[in-house]
Amino acid sequence: MAQVSGKIALVTGAARGIGQAIACQLAAEGADTALCDLQADWLTETAAKVAALGRRAQCYAVDVSQATAVQNTVAAVEKDFGRVDILVNNAGITKDAFLIRMSEQDWDQVLDVNLKGTFLFTKAVCRLMMKQRSGAIVNVASIIGLIGNAGQCNYAASKAGVIALTKSTAKEMASRGIRANAVAPGFIQTRMTEKLSEDIRKQMLAAIPLGRFGEPEDVARVVLFLASDAAAYVTGQVVTVCGGMVTA
Ligand SMILES: NC(=O)c1ccc[n+]([C@@H]2O[C@H](COP(=O)([O-])OP(=O)(O)OC[C@H]3O[C@@H](n4cnc5c(N)ncnc54)[C@H](O)[C@@H]3O)[C@@H](O)[C@H]2O)c1
User: Fold this and answer.
1) Phi and psi of 130, rounded to 5°?
2) What is the CA(192)–ligand 1 centre distance, in A?
3) Is it the case that residue 1 has pLDDT exceeding 70?
């Protein structure tokens, strides 16, 4: 049987990259999808892929960092689908700069989207999941949230925050039948990593024991596992998906 058959999955940042791969992986295993991104028309490609897999896709325009917009979106998803079984907080941005050159705005934007956005969606969806007395949340963190990185203090702090938020959510919500876990990807080939120089890419590749960059599908398969009943006894965990770059 498909792993998430008949479940309703809400995925943020689903227009492209890792979010698109997650939505498609969940759809391929039987889930209907509520697709969220900054603009609804950006989601057309993902929605078409989900539909081609025989599952329902509904698109929602939402900035994950805006509380009212998040509440309205979750209310619309509840109206359209009746429930949410799986929440994947995937939307994320980078605004890299060395610490002494980083503007307050670059700090705030990254924290607002990556960390506050995850908090806002978790809070809004947990209200539904608590009524259902079931649900699975998967947050997309990063190995940078575990090990830090020069030029990414805002991003590293946001992802470390996502990991701490995940662990706290898991402890708070376990008695309500809700699990929360995080994936921490390494270097995955998407628009986010396209902008890195050839030099940096070479250095990164040399540090990956499996000898290749990750693909969005590498992350999506782990998200599927954590979102599915196969992970029924797994909560509050961080699973790295990084080709062996980080092993602790
Ligand atoms: N690519 C990597 O190597 C890598 C590594 C570790 C973690 N991650 C994380 O994976 C997630 C997905 O990254 P990606 O590489 O697919 O990036 P991407 O830039 O290709 O996609 C990010 C998506 O999020 C959406 N988004 C951005 N801000 C938003 C907002 N305020 N509200 C709603 N949607 C918003 C974008 O429109 C886009 O569709 C991010 O959280 C990122 O931090 C990526």
Assistant:
1) -65, -40
2) 7
3) no
In the reported structure, the alpha carbon of residue 36 is separated from the centroid of ligand 1 by a whole-number distance in angstroms of: 12
Please determine, for residue 38, whether its predicted confidence score (pLDDT) is greater than 80: yes
142 Cα–ligand 1 center, Å: 11
Kindly state the average pLDDT of the residues 47-54.
Answer: 98
- Between β-strands 8-12 and 238-241, what pairing exists: parallel, antiparallel or unpaired? unpaired
Assigned architecture for domain 8-238: 3-Layer(aba) Sandwich (3.40)
Q: Distance between CA 9 and CA 55 in Å, rounded?
A: 11
Indicate which atom in ligand 1 lies nearest the CA of residue 185: 6
Q: Cβ atoms within 10 A of the Cβ of 157, count?
A: 18
Ligand 1 atom nearest to CA at 159: 43
Report the catalytic residues. Answer: 155
- The answer, yes or no, to whether residue 205 has pLDDT greater than 90, is yes
Verify whether ligand 1 is closer than 6 Å to residue 38 (CB atom).
yes
Q: Residue 78: which H helix or E strand, with range? A: helix 67-81
Rounded distance between C-alpha atoms, residue 20 and residue 8, angstroms: 16
Q: Which two tokens stand for residue 214?
A: 């990750």
Question: Would you kindly state where each structural domain of the chain is located, as residue ranges?
Answer: 8-238
Q: pLDDT tens across 94-131, in order?
A: 999 999 999 999 999 999 999 999 999 999 999 999 99
Sequence-ordered list of residues with C-beta below 8 angstroms from that of 245, at least 6 positions apart, any chain: 143, 186, 187, 207, 208, 209
Ligand 1 pocket check for 140: Cβ under 6 Å? yes
Q: What is the amino acid identity at position 165? A: L
